[in-house]
Write a structure and sequence with these properties.
A hairpin with a 3-residue loop joins strand 6 and strand 7. By secondary structure, this protein is α+β, with helices and mostly antiparallel strands. It contains 6 helices and 9 strands. The strands form 2 sheets. It has a 6-stranded antiparallel beta sheet with strand order 1-2-3-9-8-5. A 3-stranded antiparallel beta sheet has the order 4-6-7, with no helix packed on it. The protein has a single domain, classed as OB fold (Dihydrolipoamide Acetyltransferase, E2P) (Beta Barrel), CATH 2.40.50.
């Protein structure tokens, strides 16, 4: 019986150590979030140029999802509402809804993701973008976090996850 208990304790110790290493390693990369983007608490980003916003998942989101195997996005012309689902992302771990950071009309969907959804993992703030939206209400963007606030939010979230 002692060896079973010791084995279980060792596995738990190693699992905790791996999680701590993952959190520490990720925290070292926190500055990877582009300063000009705005961020949601649900780990989406938006990069606004004029009245068009490019939307994607953050590096933190893709790292938590693990390997992304498919993505379901709205069609061009679809109407979006801030905080409401715009699609789903499926990874080897789970299927998650993606919320829209803003209200507006979809003007473009990233065609590369149909055949290569892994671009979200390999380049989440670049070629892994999801959609482009014509903004309905620019003030919604102003209510989102800047990069520094998002990085602080992720750091606190990571610490709570490691503790809990």
């Amino acid at each position: 019986m002692a060896s079973t208990h010791t084995g279980r304790a060792t596995r738990q110790f190693l699992a905790n150590r791996i999680e701590i290493r993952h959190s520490v390693a990720y925290e070292r990369k926190l500055m990877a979030h582009p300063a000009k983007f705005r961020y949601t608490q649900n780990h989406q980003w938006i990069d606004v140029n004029g009245d068009i916003g490019t939307v994607g998942l953050t590096d933190y989101a893709q790292s938590r999802l693990d390997e992304i195997v498919s993505v379901e996005l709205p069609k061009t012309g679809a109407s979006l509402e801030a905080g409401k689902p715009l699609g789903t992302v499926e990874s080897v771990k789970t299927v998650n809804e993606i919320d829209s950071p803003v209200s507006g009309e979809v003007v473009e969907v990233n065609p590369a993701l149909k055949d290569a959804p892994g671009k979200i993992n390999s380049d989440p703030h670049g070629q892994g973008w999801l959609i482009k939206v014509r903004l309905k209400n620019r003030s919604e963007v102003d209510g989102l976090m800047d990069a520094a606030a998002y990085e602080a939010y992720v750091a606190v979230s990571s610490q709570q996850a490691a503790a809990g």
